[in-house]
Amino acid sequence: MKKTFLTVLLLVLALSSNVQTQDLTETLTKMAGSAAQGYVQPVASGFGADLNGGWFHKSPQTKIFGIDLELGFVAMGTFTNEENKTFSTSGGFRFGGGAVGSGSQSEDIAKNIPNYNLLPNTQKQQVIDAISGTEFQVGITGPTIVGTKTDTMKISIPTRQITANGQTYTINGNTQTLDGVVGVLDGSAIIPLMAPQASIGTIYGTQLTFRYLPDIEIDPTIGKFSYFGFGVQHNLGMWLPIPIVDVSASFFTQNLKIGSLFESKATAFGLNVSKQLGFAFLNVTPYAGFMLESSKMNVTYNFEVDKGTGIKEIIPVAFELNGENKSRLTVGLGIRLLVVNINVDYNLGKQNSATAGVFFAF
């Protein structure tokens, strides 16, 4: 139940509702270095854009003291395109080994050695072990996390030499398919996120906004999920004579962590403008904003290299990815019907996104 609850509530890693976070963890254990970074990058950027969206839909009131409380949920979605669904890079890679006849990755590579089939099994095993113990500089292409499940990751190996048992062998250039690495999101057009949100004001035209979820254990092998964010908006009309519209300065920051596997941080600041048309409990509020933003995702996991005969070499992997969005222009509309506020907006940036919120207002 905890796994299903987390997947449905947050869709944290852009996994569909029938895919558990564990699936992504298992996929990452098959990759290291550049391959893993290229695979995860789209969701790091999309997730960062999601985190920085949906924070505002109006300006605080220009009051020294007032009661303005909202409780509800905000849903965010960053749009993907064809460029997000595949990647191409180069870098170091380690291949799994195994016994002769096991069909391991290292054995498949060894078969590209001229006259390999003529070698006795003892020498074949020495070659396989030498390959599994060597880091290859390779070209890597394939689906990202938002790619399709029909695409596969391919690793192009240039011609190179290895030494086994005092002998030198030449491996002809070839291409290997990395089994078990496909697009977890299967070509989804959107990377979604949902979060509870509460806002309280107003003191000298200032409003505070919070996002929070209690710690939830995803899986004993992954750890706990934790999430907290806060922000502040200040209506500049408290100090400056601004006609017709309300103009506010805003700052928002947040942190999301999934055990020791993922940690995402996002920050945004800028100006937003709004204009309430109607009455206190029945109105329409168009709004817009320009925000400078940043986000990053830290990924830490263990890359497993199968050495054969049940022996696995565990290689720690850690890297940081920065979100592509550096700024956004937001245009939206809010509607208040008695005690319910509904808003939708569209965000233009390096990656475009949309948000929607439903709040009870008091």
What does this structure look like?
- By secondary structure, the chain is mainly β.
- The chain has 2 domains: 2-25 and 57-80 and 191-297 and 324-361, Porin, CATH 2.40.160; 84-178, no CATH class.
- It contains 5 helices and 18 strands.
- It has helices at residues 2-10, 21-28, 34-51, 105-110, 121-132, and strands spanning 65-79, 86-94, 135-143, 153-157, 160-164, 167-171, 174-178, 190-203, 206-219, 223-235, 246-258, 262-274, 277-278, 282-308, 311-322, 327-337, 340-348, 353-361.
- The strands form 3 sheets. A 10-stranded antiparallel beta barrel has the order 1-8-9-10-11-12-14-16-17-18. A 4-stranded antiparallel β-sheet has the order 2-3-4-7.
- Residues 1-20 have low confidence and may be disordered.
Alpha-beta content class? mainly beta
User: How many strands, what sense, and barrel or not for the largest sheet?
Assistant: 10 strands, antiparallel, barrel
Order of helices and strands: HHHEEHHEEEEEEEEEEEEEEEE
Oligomer: single chain
The CATH class assignment of the largest domain is Mainly Beta
Query: Which whole number gives the mean pLDDT?
Result: 86
The radius of gyration computed from the alpha-carbon positions, rounded to a whole number of angstroms, is 26 Å
Give the low-confidence spans.
Answer: 1-20
Percent of residues in beta strands: over 45%
In the CATH hierarchy, the architecture of the largest domain is Beta Barrel
CA(first)-CA(last) distance: 33 Å
What is the overall shape?
elongated
Number of domains: 2
CATH T-level fold name of the largest domain? Porin
Strand order of the largest sheet: 1-8-9-10-11-12-14-16-17-18
Number of helices: 5
> What share of residues is helical?
10-25%
Tally of extended strands? Answer: 18
